[in-house]
Amino acid sequence: MSAWGNEYLQGLEDRDTREKANLEIFNSSNRTSVLLNLRREWPIPLGLECSDSTSTGRRRPILTTHEGVPTESLVQTIATLRLDLAEAQSSKGQLQIQLKATNEELGVLKDKSNREGRTLAQLSAERATFATRIRDRDEELKGKSKLLEGVQDEMLALNIQLNMADERCRKLEKENKDLIDRWMARMSREADAMNNASKFS
Predict the structure, then answer these.
(1) Can you give the residue ranges of the Autophagy-related protein domain (predicted)?
(2) What are the pLDDT digits (tens) for 93-128?
(3) H or E element, residue 61
(4) Could you give the CA distance from residue 94 to residue 20 in angstroms, rounded to a whole number?
(5) CB 62 within 8 A of CB 21
(6) H or E stretch including 152?
(7) Is 61:71 a contact under the CB 8 Å cutoff?
(8) Which residues contact 64 (CB under 8 A, 6 or more apart)?
(9) In the chain, what are the domain boundaries?
(10) Would you call 34 exposed, middle or buried from its count of C-beta atoms within 10 A (0-12, 13-18, 19+)?
(11) Fewer CB near the last or first residue (10 Å), C or N of the chain?
């Protein structure tokens, strides 16, 4: 999971811990408030309570009604029901608060997810563009490499032809030199012969 996801889950856990602690304080205060309101609303007449004849000396409630006035046990039952209702309403309120906070956080995460989705789409498009350019460049390099190989082969062939031409040129130069030397020797002999002939005439 990404770092922001871990931070989000940790934030939810911290919030739940705080809300549970606050809910316990609220329920305790709410229970006391409900009981006090019921006592003020339905006071228990003195005639409905009596001392227990047992050795404990504790008072016990009379479970009958007197002129339509609720007994203490009925008051306790109503108090319990009202307290349960108050706790249910409190729990509902807490759940509504949590739901609202969760919806807000969900909205934030959706916005972030949408932004990241758009960014991912943009990066994917750029990646596709770069991949196409790289593929085109590879094709271009392959073409240039093939052309370079052709040029190198042609240069090698030209070098071979040049070497053959140089060898032929050297051979022709040698043949030409030999012809000139033979011609010069012949001309020298003819000149000597003419000189000798002129001496005897």
Answers:
(1) 7-195
(2) 888 888 888 889 888 988 888 898 899 999 999 999
(3) strand 59-61
(4) 10
(5) no
(6) helix 72-199
(7) yes
(8) 71
(9) 3-146
(10) buried
(11) C
